[in-house]
Amino acid sequence: MPINPQRLDSQRLGRRALLENSTLLLTAASMAPATVFADDVPSPFKIGLVTDLHYADKPVAGNRYYRETLAKLEQAALQFEQADPAFIVELGDLIDAADSVQTEQRYLKTINREFATICSERHYVLGNHCVDTLRKEEFLGGVGQEKSYYSFNQGGFHFIVLDACFRSDGQPYGRKNSVWTDANIPPAELDWLQADLKSNQSPVIVFAHQRLDVSNSHGVKNNADVRRVLEESGNVRVVFQGHSHQNDLKDIGGIHYCTLVAMVEGSGTDNNGYSTLNLYRDGTIAVDGFRKQADYRW
Ligand SMILES: [Zn+2]
């Protein structure tokens, strides 16, 4: 059994690395040939994931160490440099709220300057804090992204970015007009999602900020409707989300809902959290978590 040299390059030796380099690769080799990847796509196809950075130049509040996010992101960047992901996804709350638009723009500029050095292809999911002070077009303009929800194909997968920063009455968040517990995917976005999934045959990975798997204050209010659309497609493998700052995993209707740990929580780089998502040729999906981020393999 040949050992994948890329995996051996990983500094993350120990129990899991051994597993990946022997047992699990043996399993993969004995399975049916590739059904997901084109031959020219490297396996694993790698994606960087971070969430809830909440960067702000302001004092600690509770367990949120806003200023330390810069050092934590630098640490994550070193890992991503080694993994060399095809793209990186920031799952929302890149910045924390400021009192003025000008200050908020400064926070965004500061953190995005660091974030942009990690990878040339980046996807930003809108978090409630991203569009607390700023309007959506201001945040998106600041990070160079055209839309708040959209889809794209890469590595044999179909990826969908969702935007739940809408009030129940359909108004988009911005200029402190929202209550964080009132997150919704409005009918127009839901219709778009349904049509997008219908026109796609590839396995799907969804990125959202507010949660689609809980009905408490961290959940999207109409998430049962969203889940129904996702389940109807039959192609959605996993939804990655942030917002509640803790590792969590729920399986509902054949779809994994994986909540990633927040970068902002806790002092020092030991309390950091970030991950590499590895998509394997045999269809295996693995989250390689660092620091406080849990590992998963489906
Ligand atoms: Zn957050």
- Series of secondary-structure elements, N-terminal to C-terminal: HHHEHEHEHEEHEHEEEEEE
What is the name of the CATH architecture? 4-Layer Sandwich
Count of discrete domains:
1
CATH superfamily grouping: Metallo-dependent phosphatases
Quantity of strands, as a count = 12
User: Helix coverage percent of residues?
Assistant: 25-40%
CATH class: Alpha Beta
Q: Tell me about the biggest sheet?
A: 6 strands, mixed
Structural class: alpha/beta
N-end to C-end Cα span: 22 Å
| CA gyration radius, whole angstroms | 19 Å
Strand content: 15-25%
Describe this structure in words.
The chain is α/β, with parallel strands linked by helices and 298 residues long. The chain has one domain (44-297): Purple Acid Phosphatase, chain A, domain 2 (4-Layer Sandwich). The chain has 8 helices and 12 strands. The strands form 2 sheets. The chain has a 6-stranded mixed sheet with strand order 3-2-1-10-11-12, with helices on one face. Strands 4-5-6-7-9-8 form a 6-stranded mixed sheet, with helices on one face. Strand 2 (87-90), helix 5 and strand 3 (122-124) form a beta-alpha-beta unit. Helix 2 (15-21) runs parallel beside helix 3 (23-30), helix 5 runs parallel beside helix 6 and helix 7 packs parallel to helix 8. It starts with a helix and ends with a strand. Bound molecules: zinc ion (ZN). The site of zinc ion has 8 residues, from loops. InterPro entries: Calcineurin-like_PHP (IPR004843), Metallo-depent_PP-like (IPR029052). This is 3',5'-cyclic adenosine monophosphate phosphodiesterase CpdA. It is an enzyme of class 3 (hydrolase).
